[in-house]
Design brief:
Layout (H helix, E strand, L loop, with lengths): L8 E4 L1 H5 L8 H12 L3 E5 L8 H7 L4 E4 L4 E4 L4 E5 L4 H14 L4 E5 L4 E3 L14 E3 L12 E5 L5 H12 L3 E4 L6 E6 L4 H11 L7 E5 L5 H6 L2 E4 L5 H6 L2 E2 L7 H9 L2
Parallel strand pairs: 1-2, 1-12, 2-3, 7-8, 12-13, 13-14
Antiparallel strand pairs: 3-4, 4-5, 6-7, 6-9, 9-11, 10-11
């Protein structure tokens, strides 16, 4: 009896999944990723992060292929340090979404991820420490004439779950609304643009089927990928919605859950 072939794609989220809680790639995880590459798999980061937030992770992990960034809105060639695909939110649609957000969550502050910077209005007070140089304060995110890779909405008074429940019906099919943490932050992309849709296109372009993909994630923005992949693993530390819906489960990010699965799959 021969063992099943190793997956052709290892698609992994970063924060709360591949990375330990201190933001690093453990030696065990790096070794497992290198072994997966040696077995013929391509490692694809599938993350809410913009390209600037992926470069150092790729260096630590020894990965130089493709990253699907900003929840699927950008495809980033790590080796070339170049964005090779973009699916931004149309400005007129973003304005309609902002109006819907204002009706549902009047106190929410807005920002825009451009792929290079974060343009933040005064009410958007969230700052990511390692990304602080990328923030630019603006009177209105719609006056900057920059690509809207993601529209961001934050409310310190709510959790992300509460915000999603409040705005989902208001936004409807105008855009894709998701979140990648429990704090009060929503991430909004163009309709039909999410991690899974971009990963599917990436795989189809290479003649790779969903059954040849193993995927890892921990948050609601990962769930579509976990359901798409032939083998989708939720981390033990995942959001309750993900744990309830994902087909499989592995150890937590701090227990090298990604590495544990890859080691078991390796021939």
């Amino acid at each position: 009896m021969t063992s099943a072939p190793f997956p052709r794609i290892v698609a992994t989220d970063l924060d709360g999944t591949l990375l330990a809680s201190d933001g690093t790639v453990s030696p065990r995880t790096r070794k497992a990723l290198q072994a997966a590459r040696a077995a013929g798999a391509e490692i694809v980061f599938v993350t809410a992060r913009a390209p600037r937030g992926v470069r150092e992770v790729a260096r630590q992990a020894g990965v130089n292929g493709t990253a699907i960034c900003s929840n699927g809105a950008l495809v980033y060639d790590l080796a070339a340090d170049e964005v090779v695909g973009s699916s931004p939110l149309a400005p007129e649609t973003a304005r309609k979404v902002a109006e819907a957000l204002a009706r549902a969550l009047p106190s929410a502050g807005l920002a825009v991820e451009t792929g290079t910077n974060v343009l933040a209005e005064a009410a958007y007070t969230r700052r990511v420490a390692q990304d602080i140089a990328a923030y630019r304060e603006v009177a209105s995110v719609f006056d900057a004439d920059q690509p809207i890779v993601k529209l961001l909405a934050m409310s310190p008074a709510h959790t992300a779950d509460e915000m999603y429940q409040a705005v989902a019906d208001e936004v409807g099919d105008l855009a894709e609304v998701t979140y990648s943490g429990t704090e009060g932050l929503l991430e909004i992309s163009a309709a039909g643009v999410n991690k899974a849709s971009t990963l599917d296109r990436f795989c189809r372009e290479r003649g790779i089927g969903a059954g040849e993909v193993v995927a890892f994630g921990d948050m609601p923005n990962d769930l579509a990928v976990l359901l798409y992949a032939g083998m989708g693993y939720a981390m033990a530390n995942a959001h309750p919605l993900v744990l309830a819906a994902a087909p499989r489960r592995t150890l937590s990010n701090d227990e090298d859950g990604v590495a544990a699965v890859l080691e078991a799959l390796l021939p």
